[in-house]
Amino acid sequence: MSLQWLEAWSWSLDGLRDCIATGIQSVRDCDTTAVGTVACLLVLFVWYCYHVGREQPRPYMSVNALMQGSDASGLQNGYVYCQSSECVRCTHNEGLNQKLYHNLQEYAKRYSWSGMGRIHKGIREQGRYLNSRPSIQKPEVFFLPDLPTTPYFSRDAQKHDVELLERNFQTILCEFESLYKAFSNCSLPQGWKMNSSPSGAWFTFYLVNQGVCVPRNCRKCPRTYRLLGSLRTCIGNNVFGNACLSVLSPGTVITEHYGPTNIRIRCHLGLKTPSGCELVVGGEPQCWAEGRCLLFDDSFLHTAFHEGSAEDGPRVVFMVDLWHPNVAAAERQALDFIFAPGR
Fold first, then answer.
1. 247 contacts: CB under 8 Å, gap ≥ 6
2. Could you tell me if 253 and 262 are in contact, meaning their C-beta atoms sit under 8 angstroms apart?
3. How many helices (H) and strands (E) does the chain have?
4. Exposed, middle or buried, 308 (CB in 10 Å: 0-12/13-18/19+)?
5. CB neighbours of 157 closer than 8 A, spacing ≥ 6?
6. Closest listed residue to residue 278, CA positions, set 286, 266, 268
7. Residue pair 214/188 in contact by the 8 Å Cβ criterion
8. Which of 17, 242, 267, 299 has the fewest CB atoms within 10 Å, i.e. is most exposed?
9. What backbone torsions phi and psi does residue 329 show, to the nearest 5 degrees?
10. Strands 277-281 and 284-286
11. Which residues form the Aspartyl/asparaginy/proline hydroxylase domain (predicted)?
12. Least confident segment among 27-31, 45-49, 262-266, 318-322
C-alpha cells in the first residue's frame, strides 16, 4: 500500500467500509498483501475512534456566560431579577441560540441526530416561540415545542418519584428542623440564600443549584440528598435542575414571574403548610398540604404568598425539578449535554 494512496484516501465511512469489505474478500482469496492492508485499516480505525472520543469541545463561551447580556437590574414581566451571573433565568443574550445550536451539533456528532427533531426545531425557532407565546406561559430561556401544556400536573405524571418523596416526608422534615434552629442564632445562617420579594422574607437552602451539587449543604442534609439519587426523573445534570428547601415567612409575597423552560415539572413537597398560603399558576390557585406533593409547570406565570400571622410560622416546602413526562429519553440525554453546567 503506497503512501500516495493513503494520502488520497477520503477517510469517509463509506470508503472505510468498502476498503474493509475488499480486504476481507482478498483474505478469503489468500491475498497476503490484503491481510496487511486490513490490519493497518483496523489499527487506523481504532486510532480514529480514540481521537474522536477524547476530542475536547472548542473554547466557545459557556451557556451561562452568554445569558448575561441584558440589564439584570431592571424589571421584566414584573419580576425583580437577582443580578447573579450564574442564574440561568435572570440572564439573556442574543448569542444564546447560536451557542445552543452549536451544542446540539456537537451532541449529534458524538451520538446521533435520531430523536432530535423537536430540540432542533425549538433551537432554530426559539426567538419566534418565545416572542409569540401567550402571556400566561412564557419560558424565559428555552421552549421545547409540542409538549402538552397545563399549569398543574396530576400525581400520576411522575408517580414513582411523588410516592417516594411522600414516604420520606418525615425524614426531610426532620433535617429541615435541624437546619432551621440556626435561625435563632443569626439572621442568615451559612448555606441559606435570601431571595428578592416585595414584602416579607423568602429563603432557600439549595442541595442542587442549576445542575450543580452544593457539597456543604448536602452534608447537612445527608438523607435528603441520598433520596435525590433514588428519584427516577430528577433533573440533576443540566442548568434547569434544582433541589432546595424553600421557606416563606408570614407576610411574604413572591412577585409573579416565569420559569426558564417548559421541559421540567416543579415538585413541591409540603413540609409546613399553615393556613393563608397559596400557590397561583396560570391564574389557578392551589394550596399546599403537609406530606403531599404539588406538581406544576413553572414556565407559566406564577406567584406564591403567605398571608398568615407570625404565630402560624413559615411555609416550608422541599422543591425538586423533575422531567416533563413527555420529554423522551433521547431528548433528556441531549438536553443534559446542551445545557450542561459550564458549557
1. 180, 202, 203, 204, 205, 314, 315, 316
2. no
3. 12, 14
4. buried
5. 265, 295, 325
6. 286
7. no
8. 17
9. -60, -40
10. antiparallel
11. 166-325
12. 27-31
N- to C-terminal Cα distance for the chain? 43
∠ Cα 277 307 299 (to 5°): 50
The type of residue at 55 is: E
DSSP-assigned states of every residue in 29-59: TT-HHHHHHHHHHHHHHHHHHHHHHHPPPP-
d(CA 233, CA 325): 9
Look at residue 86 and tell me whether its pLDDT is greater than 50. Answer: no
Say how far apart CA 160 and CA 282 lie, in whole Å.
26
Question: Which position has the higher pLDDT, 17 or 69?
Answer: 17
**Least trusted range by pLDDT, from 13-22, 197-206, 239-248:** 13-22
Mean pLDDT over residues 101-126, rounded?
A: 93
Cell numbers at 269, concatenated = 413537597
Residue 101, pLDDT > 60, answer yes
Quote the cell numbers at residue 262: 417548559
Half-sphere exposure of 103 (CA within 13 A, CB side): 25
Task: With beta carbons less than 8 A apart as the criterion, state whether 303 and 254 touch.
Answer: yes
Q: What percent of the chain has pLDDT over 90?
A: 61
Contact 308, 265 (CB under 8 A): no
Write the CB contacts of 121 (distance below 8 Å, at least 6 apart in sequence). 145
Q: Which amino acid type is present at position 195?
A: N
Please write the tens of the pLDDT for every residue from 28-62. Answer: 665 566 667 777 778 777 766 665 455 443 333 44
